[in-house]
Amino acid sequence: MKENDDLIIHLPDLSFVQWCEKRYGLNRGVYNTIDEWFFLNGTKDILKRRKKILHFLANHSKECRNGRRMKFGHGRLTALLTEFLEVNQRSGRQEDIKENAIS
Fold it and tell me: What distances in angstroms separate CA 31 from CA 20, 86, 90, one per listed residue?
């Protein structure tokens, strides 16, 4: 992880959420849902959880086009999070997060 990337995951809560909103068009409610989902599904460490959040958002950044907010639709967010976790577990990358998720 690059020094700047390391700074992002260490931002205070509000600053981190605002960074996600600016970068991915993610509103606070969706961010909270994603954060809680990873927590309830075993990622208790905040830094690991933030890395996973950023990796997930980078994988789904196509959802946000032309400065619009990410929209997942009813029930789709949970399905995408479940798929994301399963793919990472199958590939043995449960804790391995791509560096380009942040940059």
Answer: 8, 20, 25
